[in-house]
Design brief:
alpha+beta, 2 helices, Thiol Ester Dehydrase, Chain A, globular, six-stranded antiparallel beta sheet, about 40% strand
Length: about 140
């Protein structure tokens, strides 16, 4: 079982221009204040970042940043929308918006922005035999 599976992350779309994941916050993902743990939000954003950045190359993170805007509650449905900001030959930067929606079926673009993640990867051509990300 992967860490993403353990957290309950669902991959809805993987494409080089947009990767979309979702997660419903459960009681096990709460912090001492009764809101979603920052590590849970980071993990969701990081999974979207990892998937999109490894679709067309072999990538490893060199820098990430996460800004929290709103508290997230148990039962909230979060969507992670990852898009490229700039993709070069050896470095690429991606933006991941974490948005709160009422259901998994809601348009994530219409959801409330609760956190913003920016990450940069070092990238190189995929080595022979290296697996592409499975998204699960």
């Amino acid at each position: 079982m992967t860490y993403a599976t353990l957290l309950g992350i669902t991959v809805l779309q993987t494409a080089p221009q947009r990767t979309h994941l979702s997660l419903t916050v459960s009681g096990t993902g709460l912090n001492m204040h009764g809101t979603a743990h920052g590590g849970l939000l980071f993990s969701l954003a990081d999974e979207a970042f990892a998937l999109i950045s490894n679709l067309e190359a072999q990538a490893v993170a060199v820098e990430t940043h996460l800004s929290f805007f709103r508290a997230v509650q148990q039962g909230d449905v979060l969507h992670a929308l990852a898009t490229p900001e700039r993709v070069g030959r050896t470095l690429a930067t991606y933006r991941v918006e974490l948005r709160r929606c009422l259901t998994v079926q809601d348009r994530p673009e219409d959801g409330e922005l609760v956190a913003l993640f920016l990450g940069t990867v070092s990238r190189r051509a995929r080595e022979n035999g290296a697996a592409e990300p499975s998204g699960a």
